[in-house]
Design a protein that fits this description.
- This protein has 9 helices and 11 strands.
- By secondary structure, the chain is of the alpha+beta class.
- Strands 3, 4, 5, 6, 7, 8, 9, 10 and 11 form a 9-stranded antiparallel β-sheet that branches.
- Helix 4 packs across helix 6.
- The longest helix has 20 residues, at about 5-20.
């Protein structure tokens, strides 16, 4: 398969993956997914399996179950039935069977075990330490709510409504944590595509990385992430470069100054320390990192953006 043909296949399969992710609470048919990818329904299943490593419905069920695992630990979903419906299962017994096959625990057992382990870990980490909670205040200059805290890597936190973002992206599936060469290669390919099309720069230009899966749940060989730049609405993409839209939403935006080894620490602090004191919970939408400045001397200024809703 030539590189041009391979990139065309990648783009079409990514369209199907994006469609699935946007409609996770709905049912799908093979004809429907094949049409989205613009492949014959007679060959789509085989092509998808060869490109993704799973059948379409194997992929759908796995992503649904893994998203359910995340929601089970969120205080916004009190019953297993709530979670099952949210991820597209209309029968709780079917959901429970798939969940147990995947995690070797029932949904109720999984929730209880993870929360128990989390509480023990929190007590261990807090032993002998003075706990400093983030404190909130209203900033009259920006008309937003912000937080003060003593986390050294964190420079600011605010709640902000972000507009709809139109994005061009290149996606990677597989391990990525701590792999600077991987990220550099993905960015180089995306900018090499965008540069000749005059899509780089401008007052509203943003670069970001979307993480589609929870690395604490999904096997690292199946983790998906997309390096993205904002582009004008209607921009045509080709080859391995796809396009997608992030809907307007309310986010917590936490700015950190980190080196390449500290991204995980920043994410962990946001979820483990800030969220429990904030009055918010993560919303069920993609989270991402946004880069307002170029890296310098091995350090990165990064805005970690997580969609939120009231607790």
């Amino acid at each position: 398969m030539s590189q041009t043909t391979k990139n065309e296949y990648i783009q079409r399969i990514n369209k199907a993956l994006d469609y699935i992710e946007r409609n996770m609470d709905k049912s799908f048919t093979l004809d429907e997914l094949a049409a989205v990818a613009n492949f014959s329904k007679f060959h789509f299943n085989r092509i998808f399996c060869a490109m993704v490593g799973e059948t379409p419905f194997g992929f759908i069920n796995r992503v649904r179950i893994e998203r359910a695992a995340t929601l089970l630990l969120s205080p916004g979903f009190e019953t297993v039935t709530d979670v099952a419906f949210k991820v597209g299962f209309t029968d709780q017994s079917v959901f429970s069977r798939y969940f147990k096959n995947h995690f070797q625990l029932s949904p109720t057992q999984y929730r209880a075990q993870k929360k128990h382990n989390s509480n023990i870990g929190q007590m261990d980490s807090n032993h002998g330490k003075i706990i400093t909670e983030p404190t909130g205040y209203f900033c009259s200059r920006t008309q937003t709510f912000k937080w003060k805290n003593t986390m050294e890597l964190n420079k600011s936190i605010e709640i902000k409504d972000l507009p709809k973002l139109n994005l061009a992206y290149i996606r990677h599936t597989g391990p990525y944590q701590g792999n600077e060469n991987l990220f550099e290669g993905l960015w180089n390919r995306l900018f090499a595509w965008a540069g000749p099309r005059n899509l780089i720069g401008g007052p509203d230009f943003k670069s970001l990385i979307i993480y589609h899966d929870d690395p604490n749940i999904t096997d690292e060989n199946k983790l998906r992430m997309s390096v993205c730049i904002t582009v004008p609405e209607g921009t045509k993409t080709d080859g391995e470069v796809g396009n997608m839209e992030l809907e307007a939403a309310r986010y917590v935006i936490a700015r950190f100054d980190v080196d390449a080894t500290q991204f995980g620490q920043a994410w962990q602090w946001l979820y483990g320390q800030w969220f429990p004191q904030s009055g918010y919970q993560p919303d069920d939408k993609p989270c991402f990192e946004m880069y307002p400045e170029e890296p310098k001397d091995g350090r990165f200024i990064v805005d970690i953006c997580v969609p939120v809703k009231p607790l």
